[in-house]
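Posting for a labmate who doesn't have an account.
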Amino acid sequence: MKDNSFQEHYLISNGMVHLGYRADSIDDIVCHYSAKGYETLSSEFLATFDEIVPHIPEKMPVALEISGCSFSEDEKSVIERTIWNHYHIKLSGIKQENKSTFIKMCWFTLSFVLSGILLFLVDDNTENILVQYAYLPFWFFGYRVLIYLILDLIPQFKNLHTYEQLAGAKVFFSGISPINDVPVDKAGDYSAEFDSNVKNKEASDYDSMVNYYLIEEDGSAVISCVATGVDDVIRKTSVTGYEMLNTELEEYIDQQLPYIPEDGDTRLEFTGGEFSDDEERTVIRAVTNYYAFRVENAKKEYRGSIHRIVWFLILMAAATVLLFCTEHTVDKATLEFITMIFWLIGDYLIEFVLLGFTEAKANLKRISRLAETEVQIK
């Protein structure tokens, strides 16, 4: 079997990447929690195409066929706009992620060069333990630069090209029964429209797209949810007094969280239904519980990062003493083994401080601010 036989059989049709999705109603595509003008894709739709994304052939136009239902013109417009918005915001987010990774790699490269200069300046009379401490940042930063380049930056650029294809995808509706193909007579038009969408990159500005969705005139970040009743919000398996949000609603909120600015107030609005006073209190308590669990998990992660640093500082001190005391009393092979352990502990210590601790602290700060989210039921 040829390596690309899967792509040719399942995905390529008349010179285009053909993706198919069957929906019984618009709710199978657009999340029913999303408010008008703030539509987002359903978790089932996203999960379906997340599985396909790694297999999409590069540098080919994409056509997305939606079947299973006769949608109205308004529904078609909403579906097309929601798909377009999602993948353009996703594309812009990947661009920002690539930029952030590249900046980190530049800083680590600079640190690697400076560490190399420091090692070059070390003379033969310098104590061995000091030489080993000089080697630590040199080895760590050099290793990290390769990791960022090979495991982060290169795959991220592959994702960038794939989501550029998805952001420019031509959506067409085939009615009740799928045709499972790109129409031959329309393939050329679809390809031309795809090229036009991809070239229109100024429309995918990250900040303007996010502000359109989330930021109100007063500067508040708003997550709008449509709920016709308390059953749309609360899990049926919840016990009174220990209410939890519906899993699908949690996924919907989680989709919005990466795009909420770090500063300013956050508001969670429920519209579309009438709630009694008791039901309102139940919904507010469930949202409070939702954020409380996230804050507690973030605190555990933060405390865990501190504990790891403390333990590795103790291990580093012990390794330093051991290396210092055995420098002139053991054979060369044993000394190299002790030095290797010293490097390993030092590498993990630097990683925990520069990456683990700082990320855990930033995450705790962000989640704690979200825990202050105001809940409004209209």
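Reply:
Got it, the structure tokens are right above this. The longest helix spans residues 277-326.
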